[in-house]
Design goal:
heterodimer; A: 238 residues; alpha/beta; Rossmann fold; 2 domains; six-stranded mixed sheet; four-stranded antiparallel sheet; B: 352 residues; alpha+beta; Alpha-Beta Plaits; 4 strands
Amino acid sequence: MSNSPVIQGNDDPIIEFRGVFKTYPTGTHALEDVNIKINNGEFVFVVGSSGAGKSTFMKLIMREEKANTGKITVNGFDLTSMPRRQVPMLRRTMGIVFQDFRLIPTMNVFDNVAFAMHVVGASGKEVRREVTKALSKVGLGHKARSMPSQLSGGEQQRVGLARALVNAPDLIIADEPTGNVDPNMSYEIVSLLTEINKKGTTILMVTHDHNLVRDFNHRVIMLDSGRIVADNAGGGIV
Amino acid sequence: MKLGSVKYLAGEGVKNVWVNRLMSIASIGVLVACMVIIGLAILITENVNIAVGNLEKQNVVMVYMKDYNWALYSEKEDVSSEENSSENAESSSAEEASEPERDANGISDNDYVIHNEDEAKALCKEIEKISNVEKAEFISSEEGLQAVKESMLEGQEEYFTFLDDEYGNPMSCAAKVTMKDMSLFDETLEEIGKLAGVDVIQSQSDLAETITALKQGITIAGIWIIAILLIISLVIVSNTIRVTMYNRKLEISIMKAVGATDAFIRLPFVVEGMLIGVISALIAEGLLYFCYRVATETIISTLGTSDIVKYGDVAWLLLLIFIGIGILAGVIGSVIMISKYLRREGSEFAAI
């Protein structure tokens, strides 16, 4: 693989942070003066040690938390002034992949993926069509009737990925998606995400795995003590 | 929200009742108990009201009239002024000048107001015109005496027989008055007393006060019992929903993460709460019917009274009340709990 990062996407930012500060009521300064632009169609790794502010960064993008100061724009939504009732609309434009898969143990693979479509009010016909497509994309079409407990960790994470994909989001946020799978499966998952990214979906992936970051050669944002300490946007290091 | 979503969510709510069946059974049990007690409170109130109504009917007021017998046995007085109080001094002096004719007992027409049965019946009609008077039944002096004799204990009756033979019938004709609302007892008596020809009114004002106080007490107690049990029902359903919610926090976190609205997340819990309420209502109705039937059969056979509310007459009303309580407790309980959870807790990212 090439050593220079592959910067895809255009100059149209899908995520923009301007002078963002976030301090929790406990007094913890989670983010300090964060300024960043992530363009539509980019694949970005977010790295940093524990407590660096990665989770807060993701929570702000999902609008699970609100910034104390600064401006955040995601997918055209101004998160600083957006009322709470619009948060579901924002989230429908993104898919989320969790480290612990978050599959409902009492539902089979198909229903776990379909669940995300029911939530946004899709019809039964749409659900059947799109879930089948999403499961095929992640190579699990044949396991649609299996229960999560019958799947390996890698397979469970692919179900999580299918669920994130099924509503055709513009942005996928993956919170350490390879944290609970073996190295081979990690490569498979990031390869899948790369394939999805090539079709135009922006990917924002938090990871601790330096090998993946090095091998996949995407843009990397490094956080430390709530500040962005490195960003190789456009091939350079900030 | 689309119809498909509503169907899906309603189905999820129904499934929840089964998935959390132990908690559902516990909630249904407590709700049924609350509903049965509410139903019993309603039935007891109704039955007491019937009994009090019967007492009210017995609490008659006797209005005695100023008739010939009254003039004969009471202190003589000229009552003509009652009939026409506006007579001037000139005409009074004219009457004084012409002494009225008196009978063998020394009674003149001017000594009494009610001269015959027609006038007595007319007074009854006047009494009946008073808004709180339900009925004013004419009792002739003969009927009055007969009633007194019948009410006497054995032996005492002889005294009246002697009185009758010696002096004639001492009873005045009267009106037997029953009232609509015992709480207006005193005001009604005052209105009756103002009518010309009314002598004395015999009443049991203590009983009237007791009846009114009893009715008010029962109503207030009923309202309190129902209010307290409603709150208990609400707390019980809220608690079940709370447990269900914590059991399903993973699903809720996923729902929130993929963009479910609060209404969407809330609906299955509301359906679950409503369903628990409706099931409880049906069980409570059946149970209350059985208990009430056994109780009334026992009461009828031991006390011999059949003046009891029939369950069939109130069955639909009670069912509606129970379903209303169930749905209300289910909806309010779940909405309070889930809204609190969605506002303050339940991280999408950490699923906690």
